[in-house]
Amino acid sequence: MVESLRFVRTKVESLNKQSKDEQCMYWMNLWKVKAGQIYSRASVALNNAGEIENQYNGVNKIVKRASNGMRVVALAKAALAIFIVFSVIKFFSGPSWGEASMGITLANVTKEDAVEYNLESEGVYVAKINTKAAEKAGFQVRDRIVTVDGRSVDDADDVFSIIHFKEPGDTIPVTISREGKQYTLEVKLKRAK
Question: In a 10 Å sphere around its CB, with 0-12 CB exposed, 13-18 middle and 19+ buried, how is residue 131 labelled?
Answer without folding.
Answer: middle
